[in-house]
Write a structure and sequence with these properties.
20 helices, Arc Repressor Mutant, subunit A, 441 residues, Rossmann fold, 12 strands, protein biosynthesis, nucleotide-binding, aa_tRNA-synth_I_cd-bd_sf, Glutamate--tRNA ligase, 3-stranded antiparallel beta sheet
Length: 441
């Protein structure tokens, strides 16, 4: 059974870069008939809020993701505490008393000696008396995980065979001085407890994977399969960041973008699957294989999003638009099918619908008034269909000798007030004869 998780920290609003792993995990679960867990990594009590967590759930739902299970790390502290105790008892988690300033000096000294600036493990040589003395001075320990210091091999779903040598890394701090946990330990503990089989995340976590595999093994847990995808960057090649205030998913929603357009751009940029319209996320899941994910950066193009958003609307069936149209006081499948090809944002339909419902501001040049008065007199009787426009304009051409732009543009401007828009042969039956008579001089 495939079990994946997406584990955001509710410390801000999620952006396109966050949506990428959320969607890729969803696609993998759907493709393999698996379970999708939304795990709120909310152990950062100072910055995590319920408001941000609720916002993440809303954003996922808007994108079309419905988790099978929601868990919060803050509810699972007993499991994390038990794992900490086991690692201490096994000698894999050890207390350290250096201040940040002391650690900075050690790193600077190592660089001067052309040595890697990794932790020297001096705390391992502390005796019980040394620790008691340091604590009597008011120092509180942080706790480091003692790495094996070996090449850790794993087969990456996306990148293929990988090796991380933990001998070149500092023993990571898993528990802060105040007893709170950093990301790593709760993540591994929860992955074991929840039966996570696949961890799919950004390639910036590759080096973390060696450490985490050692923690999985130290706790006797099954090591999941890892997959590290390329990162999504903005148009300037910079990574998206909550800290830097990157445009959030809720910002895109408020600006009127379609959730499918955002989902496609967030997930398929930087893959060989085309950036084109798809009816559902399941269609993408069935087509996207991780072999299609590029090993290079995936650069987001706002202009491509605008183009895609329009194409998504142009392909949207009436059934998918009806409720939103009704909320705007608009009805009618024929009107939607006629006008949707002119939309860039869904809200544009309110202005375009005026071509059918009115009111419009007719535009007419003085030299066209006599021609338009004749056109009004020659307006065919109802019923109207898509042949009415050609019957009317053929008759006007014969009567006036006008043709091409001189024939068609004055009629378009008088009937719609615009140079652009849908074909008048399709628009005319929806407008109706009475409204056309009212718009012509």
């Amino acid at each position: 059974m495939t079990v994946v998780r997406w584990a955001p920290s509710p410390t801000g609003r999620i952006h396109l870069g966050n949506a990428r792993p959320a969607l890729l995990n969803w696609f993998y679960a759907r493709r393999h008939g698996g379970t999708y867990i939304l795990r709120m990594d909310d152990t950062d009590h100072a910055r995590s809020t319920r408001e941000f967590a609720d916002g993440i759930e809303r954003d996922l739902a808007w994108l079309g993701i419905t988790p099978d299970l929601l868990v919060r790390q803050s509810d699972r502290t007993a499991l994390h505490d038990a794992a900490r105790t086991r690692l201490i008892a096994a000698g894999r988690l050890y207390p350290c008393y250096e201040t940040e300033e002391e650690l900075d000096r050690k790193r600077a000294r190592a660089r001067l000696l052309n040595k890697p600036p990794i932790y020297d493990r001096s705390a391992l040589s502390l005796t019980a008396e040394d620790r008691a003395r340091l604590e009597a001075e008011g120092r509180k320990p942080h706790w480091r995980f003692r790495l094996d210091g070996r090449p850790v091999h794993f087969e990456d779903l996306i990148k293929g065979p990988q090796t991380v040598n933990t001998a070149s890394m500092s023993d990571p701090v898993l528990v802060r001085e105040d007893g709170s946990y950093l990301y790593t330990l709760p993540s591994v503990v929860d992955d074991i407890d929840l039966g996570i089989t696949h961890v799919i995340r950004g390639e910036d976590h590759v080096s973390n994977t060696g450490t985490q595999i050692e923690i999985f093994e130290a706790l006797g847990g099954a090591v999941p399969t890892f997959g590290h995808h390329n990162l999504l960057t903005d148009a300037e090649g910079q990574g998206f960041s909550k800290r830097l205030g990157s445009q959030s998913i809720s910002d895109f929603r408020d600006q009127g973008y379609e959730p499918m357009a955002i989902a496609i751009m967030a997930s398929l940029t930087g893959t060989s699957l085309p950036i084109e319209t798809y009816e559902t996320l399941d269609e993408i899941a069935n087509r996207l294989d991780f072999s299609m994910v590029s090993h290079g950066a995936a650069r987001f193009d706002p202009a491509e999003l605008d183009s895609l958003n329009a194409r998504v609307l142009h392909a949207l069936p009436y059934e998918g638009a009806a409720a939103r149209l009704s909320a705007m006081g608009l009805e009618g499948e024929a009107m939607w099918l006629l006008l949707r090809d002119n939309l860039r944002k869904f809200a544009d339909i309110a202005e375009w619908a005026k071509l059918v419902t009115g009111p419009i501001e007719p535009v007419m040049a003085d030299e066209d008034r006599d021609f338009l008065a004749l056109a009004k007199a020659m307006l065919p009787p109802e019923p109207w269909d898509e042949t009415t426009w050609s019957q009317w304009t053929d008759a006007l051409k014969s009567a006036t000798g006008r043709k091409g732009k001189a024939l068609f543009l004055p009629l378009r401007l008088a009937l719609t007030g615009r140079h652009d828009g849908p074909e008048l042969k399709s628009l005319l039956p929806l407008v109706g004869r009475k409204a056309c008579l009212d718009r012509l001089p």
